Amino acid sequence: DIKRAYLTRVWKMDIHPTAQFSLSAKFDRTFPIGIHVGAHSYVAFESRLLTHDRTRGLYLHTRIGENCFIGGRSLILPGVEIGDNCVIGAGSVVTKSVPPRSIVAGNPAKVIRSDIEVGPYGRFLTADATESALAESGLA
Questions:
Q1: Pick from 120, 46, 38: which is nearest to 76 by CA?
Q2: Distances from the Cα of 122 to the Cαs of 22, 59, 86, 94, 96, in angstroms?
Q3: Closest by Cα among 6, 12, 80 to 48
Q4: How far apart are CA 41 and CA 15, in angstroms?
Q5: CA 13, CA 32: separation in Å to the nearest integer?
Q6: Catalytic: 40?
Q7: How many whole angstroms separate alpha carbon 120 and alpha carbon 82?
Q8: Using CA atoms, how far apart are residues 120 and 99, in angstroms rounded to an integer?
């Protein structure tokens, strides 16, 4: 895809080829080599991944693990590392690193559940069954 090629080739960001992101997602271009997005992760609409803090003179690596879902309009601050298999709630402001297999939400984001199991793109393993049940009942 064109945006991925632009971000990885021109800006030298580390975005895995299987990672997906909304076209409105924003990746910090002030310190672009600090952006790292792992395999089978998804960055939703209008989310922002930051790698610098001009007020403190910081330029840090920000990492999204594998199989993560970053909810719409989330803000991931510089230097934050999100572990593998995590879900970040929509609108969250992630100020600290997130342990693997966690759900975080809020401002500032806090762990609301641990030891979760998700598949690619942070999709819960029960999601297909839930979707099928809704479709059968005419609600989806």
A1: 46
A2: 15, 28, 6, 17, 19
A3: 80
A4: 10
A5: 6
A6: yes
A7: 15
A8: 17
Output phi, psi for 11, to 5 deg: -95, -10
pLDDT for the residue numbered 140: 79
Residue 69 CB burial class (10 angstroms; 0-12, 13-18, ≥19): buried
pLDDT at 1: 84
Give the residue ranges of the chain where pLDDT is below 70. Answer: none
CB 111 within 8 A of CB 95: no
Three-state helix/strand/coil letters over 41-75: CEECCCCEECCEECCCCEECCEEECCCCEECCCCE
**Angle made by CA atoms 40, 10, 21, in degrees to the nearest 5:** 25
CA 6, 28, 39 angle in degrees (round to 5)? 65
How many CB atoms are closer than 10 A to CB 96?
13
Determine which one of 36, 40, 52, 61 is catalytic: 40
* pTM reported for the whole predicted model: 0.95
Give the position of tokens 């402001």.
93
